[in-house]
Amino acid sequence: MRERFSSTETESFSRIRAKGAPRRGRRSERFDDNEPEVVFRFDDHGAHAVAGDEYTDDDGGHEGHDGEYENYDDSYNDSYDDNPDGGPAGGDRWSTWDQSTPTEKGPEPRPAWVVTELAAVDTELGLVKTGKEADVFLLERGVPGTERRTLMAAKRYRDSQHRMFHRDSGYLEGRRHKESRIDRAMAKRTAFGKEAIAAQWAGAEFAALCRLWSAGVAVPYPVQIMGTEILMEFVGDESGTAAPRLAQLRAEEVDVEDLWAQLGRSLSLLAVDGYAHGDLSAYNILVHQGRLVIIDVPQIVDVVANPRGRAFLERDVRNVGAWFVSRGLPEHRVGELVGALESDARLG
User: Tens of pLDDT along 44-68?
Assistant: First the structure.
């Protein structure tokens, strides 16, 4: 039995087994009996859906959700099962690294801590954070019998029965799906439409993390995406204790000036690239050993294309700036940063 881990979100948690963790070759299920089946794929533009029969293997099997196949032979699973439960011995599931396509994996060069070995197994250690749209779990990926292992945050967007998407309007202006039937389902919030929204948000967040990390913005490294699960860098210590959010810290615990400078650099890189976080506050910034890390980026806003882009950029700065002002930062510095970022984004 693993020891219990502590977290800033919950007092303690212990290892739990992922419910419905996918087995290799497992049959995919339809979202809704009355809706067509789609496959969500991810590329540089985020998530998109295609008809379920557009991806076919050599044996005629159709690729389903998360790169799995609808037509399969149960004996295929036997070669991977090390215990009667269908998973590997000593873990909850086999590593899903080989189930993500190249565009569903993080940018290169990858950090040395990323475990890509096919012999690796994933072990779920507990809940880190709950949210309205997604939950974050602590996951260990390691190669049995070796010291090769790492901790990751597994962000899982919720199923259609337990999800509340409160940020769709405004942020998604201009993000229309290429298939009108999917747009209609999303607008009507059918079960199929909610599944499509989940895939769109997950794809948008993964694409944003890849872009921002490559640009040098202080965000967690995105390891991979599979369906509506994003695996990313765990910001915390080796014991599994998550880094505190900025909102939880007192002025005497941090270097306020240094953190403000770190924030300014990251927001400047975002603005130069033409973007704003869109929902920034002291609650979605982590601080680990003096390092500031911005999280929760699925709603990243194109400040030039979005008619409300300037307003989103200014709101980001003023929201998080309120924390710094309450801890001694001169208020005029907030307005100065707004002006600098508008200049970086070439908003005039």
Answer: 444 444 434 333 333 333 333 333 3
> Residue type for 328, please?
G
Which phi and psi angles does 332 have, rounded to 5°?
A: -65, -20
Distance CA 324, CA 333 (A): 10
Q: Which parts of the chain sit beneath pLDDT 50?
A: 1-82, 162-169, 171-175, 177
SS3 assignment for the chain: CCCCECCCCCCCECCCCCCCCCCCCCCCCCCCCCCCCEEEEEECCEEEEEECCCCECCCCCEECHHHCECCCCCHHHHCCCCCCCCCCCCCCEECCHHHCCHHHECCCCCCCCCCCCCCCEEEEEEEEEECCCEEEEEEEEECCCCCCEEEEEEEEECCCCCCCCCCCCCCCCCCCCCCHHHHHHHHHCCHHHHHHHHHHHHHHHHHHHHHHHHHCCCCCCEEEEECCEEEEECCECCCCCECCEHHHCCHHHCCHHHHHHHHHHHHHHHHHCCEECCCCCCCCEEEECCEEEECCCCCCEECCCCCCHHHHHHHHHHHHHHHHHHCCCCCHHHHHHHHHHHHHCCCC
Query: 287-297 pLDDT, tens per residue?
Result: 999 999 999 99
The answer to pTM > 0.90 is no
N residues, the chain:
348
CB 122 within 8 A of CB 140: yes
